[in-house]
Amino acid sequence: MDDNAIEVNGITRTFRTYVxxxxxxxxxxxxxxxxKALDNVSFSVKKGEIVALLGKNGSGKxxxxxxxxxxxxxxxxxxxxxxxxxxxxxxxxARDIGVVMGAHEQLYTDLPALDTFELMRYVYNIPxxxxxxxxxxxxxxxxxEKVYTQQVRTLSFGEKMKCNFVASILHMPKIVILDEPTxxxxxxxxxxxxxxxxxxxKRYNTTFFITTHVVEDLDIAERIIMLDEGRKxxxxxxxxxxxxxxxxxxxxxxxxxxxxxxxYRKYGKVVESESNYIKLEIGKEMLRKKSFxxxxxxxxxxxxxxxEEELNNVILALYKMNKKK
Amino acid sequence: xxxxNGHAYLGYFITTLKNxxxxxxxxxxxxxxxxxxxxxxxxxxxxxxAASGAHEIGGYTxxxxxxxxxxxxxxxxxxxxxxxxxxxxVDSGNVITYLVKPISYPLQLFSEGLAELLxxxxxxxxxxxxxxxxxxxxxxxxxxLALLSIEMFVFIALAAxxxxxxxxxxxxxxxIWGVINIMSFLIIFxxxxxxPLGLFPSGISKALMLLPFQMMGYTQVETLLGLLNxxxxxxxxxxxxxxxxxxxxxxxxxxxxxxxxxxxxGG
Lengths: 325, 267
Prior knowledge:
The complex is a heterodimer of chains A (325) and B (267).
Chain A: E1 4-19, E2 31-46, E3 50-55, H1 61-68, E4 76-81, H2 90-94, E5 97-101, H3 113-123, H4 128-141, H5 157-169, E6 175-179, H6 187-204, E7 207-212, E8 223-228, E9 231-236, H7 238-243, E10 248-255, E11 269-274, E12 277-283, H8 290-296, E13 301-308, H9 311-324
Parallel strand pairs in A: 3-7, 3-8, 5-6, 6-7
Antiparallel strand pairs in A: 1-2, 1-4, 8-9, 10-12, 10-13, 11-12
Chain B: H1 6-21, H2 24-32, H3 36-52, E1 56-57, E2 60-61, H4 62-76, H5 83-92, H6 95-99, H7 105-135, H8 142-168, H9 170-173, H10 177-190, H11 202-208, H12 218-225, H13 230-259
Antiparallel strand pairs in B: 1-2
Helix pairs in contact in B: 1-7, 3-4, 4-7, 4-12, 5-8, 8-12, 8-13
């Protein structure tokens, strides 16, 4: 129990939304519909774990974060953060969490980011010498030396994002929640962000909960939770996610001379083909079959490669499967 | 009530001062634009005095009437701009950035409002009162300043509480411009911004003195002009304080209820 930083038990959250009527009078015939943003979601996150919450736009990721930390009240179910009920202890819990909402800025746009950092010193009561030490470290790490004293409105999106991140972790929270943290951030800044996440986890056993719809962001996560239409559809590692689909393999074959596509259908599904090239999707067990090894040793083949199914495709397949349900 | 995490609110106070001062000229113009209503009232009352041919209406000479409206503009500029901020925060979804911090959202808004009031007082009200005082004799004594301080304290609290109550509606309906405009007009009218409350028919005037709005400009201006005796001032302060207490309880209950009603449109 004490090992868990976050526990979410059967949370359901609905919203009432407007639905316009049809035709000229539609504006006056306003109707309401109930949207289930979260549907009986349960999971737990261990202290020091890096968990990615993956989902399409509108899948309920941000609602889950807000409900989990006590900003939104659930219709049913409950949560605990660091052993406390977030709905009655929002302010206490907020001292130990840092939240970066990609879409919402906490920086004062008419002032330099330094002023927002100073504000965070007051908000979290950080001793002055400690604040200086941390700020210097983060500024250097994120290459913000020339930027953090400039008016925020003159900064690029990526620079603002990095400043936002620094403002959210200056108090060294036990849990960091990042909502779409890499949107608009360049490759080197993404690398610095991921490096910082790993570093904080290692040094301070910080728990990270990262929401994203970008598959490339998943490489840092030790665990992936997938949400679709408010439901949890997967909870496990990326390897487990690949296994979930029977471990398919992608074979690419390059030939010296032209081939007949139909000759290769017996090995698996033809994904792509040209006169002297074919891409197949095959089951992992096919690799051990004699007929397959014989085919691979065909002298007509000048090159071949075997790859695991791409995570992107697995995720798309999982969404499709959930839709059918 | 002990203010927990007071340093956080001090942080918001200081940052708001810095923010306002980053565009000093723009801020000064916004504050100066508050004189607009009093200029309109000066023209209206000049016409009324000219048409009636009277030198005095309800104890006000034309000069003291001018002084009344300019002073009213100065005093009433000391209200906080809270409800439009709440509406913007709710509409943009940025309210989340405050709710994830170990602070009370209303107290944070109040701290920001106090910083703006300090600037308004130093840049607009104090120089304005000095200028008017050099033209029209004002009732400036230690006792009147003490009473005025209490009146301003009650005014700031009342104006903030009323604005909070309007602002909280944004969590239910998002767009509250209509309510803000209606309330702004009502407050100007009921606090004596169009006509001194003493000039209303006796029954209506007495009723208006029982509302909180008399403490939102009228009583302070009358105190400065020396037109109210101490017992009337004390009575007005008592009424204002009672309203402050009642509105505080209502605002507290409404915020507790509103917190459970918060929804965010996307993201």
